[in-house]
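Have a think about this chain, tokens included, and walk me through the fold.
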Amino acid sequence: MPLTTDSFRGYYDILDKALDIFPLEVQCSIEFARRGEEHSPVIYIRNDSEEIRKSIDNFLGEYGFTIPRKLYEPGHEGTRTGLIAIDLSTVTTDNLRLYVTTAHNNPNNDKLEWLWGIGYYLDKSGNVLGKKHYNINLSGPNMKVHYFDAEGNLVSSATETETITDDWKVWGGSEQLYNMVKENNLVHQFAVKSKKDQAYFIVSLPTNKRK
């Protein structure tokens, strides 16, 4: 069957609701995360219009969140570009996880660390409870993560290593979902963190328009 937004329905109730607002054509990828025994879909939305930003406002508002636009409008702290990611498992809690990518402005030096994105932990009023800076070093496969508290003070830094694997079972989610992705020839990969019981099934979506 041809790929449509409905292809991803029926696996997670919260993803079904999100797809009503954010069909596949406004997304670039969907990440299915497993942290221990807990599974969560994360949608990566193209931040390319005011209409999209209003949709994000409305969607999160349905769950009681009011998020300051400065966190995901183009501009300061990272010169925002294309992607806003929402961890959908958190929209029904009191603490939202929201991720925003930054400009890919690596200065042609493969030894220099550069900021790839920022992950925010937010309360219902949009106050930043903490955040992570994800820094990439193109000389290796590692990502450096800097943790900050609510006041913006650096708490700690850690190097995270993810191993790419073809073994879908490390993710531990729906085999039916995995088979649907394969049958539609979607680019995908599985990643496992080396120091945490976490794995990810990352599905890239075609750029052509879909309904």
User: Anything to note?
Assistant: The first helix runs from residue 13 to 21. Helices lie at 13-21, 50-61, 175-183.
